[in-house]
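Renewal narrative, Specific Aim 1. Our central claim is that a sequence can be written position by position from structural information alone. The example that follows is taken directly from our test logs and has not been curated for this report. It begins with the structure tokens describing the chain, in the order in which they were read.
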């Protein structure tokens, strides 16, 4: 919340709102995300995946950090030592 308030305090004029609004929304999205190591039940996992698919399966968070990876079948075989 403090980060959001700080972002809001940087607004100078109505014309300069677009970038700060995007920044605030990106911060809210990332702070509301499922954190690494958090245990989830199957219905919650399904909901997260369904929402991700509904949004078009983005590969990055709003800040540009990677949130998913794609592996080809050869890579998966190599990773799991199946070659």
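The sequence written for that structure reads:
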């Amino acid at each position: 919340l403090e980060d959001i308030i700080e972002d809001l305090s940087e607004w100078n004029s109505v014309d300069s709102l677009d970038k700060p609004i995007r920044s605030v929304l990106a911060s809210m999205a990332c702070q509301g995300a499922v954190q690494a190591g958090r245990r989830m039940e199957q219905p919650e996992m399904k909901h997260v995946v369904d929402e991700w698919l509904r949004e078009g399966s983005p590969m990055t968070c709003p800040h540009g950090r990677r949130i998913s990876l794609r592996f080809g079948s050869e890579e998966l075989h190599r990773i799991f030592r199946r070659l």
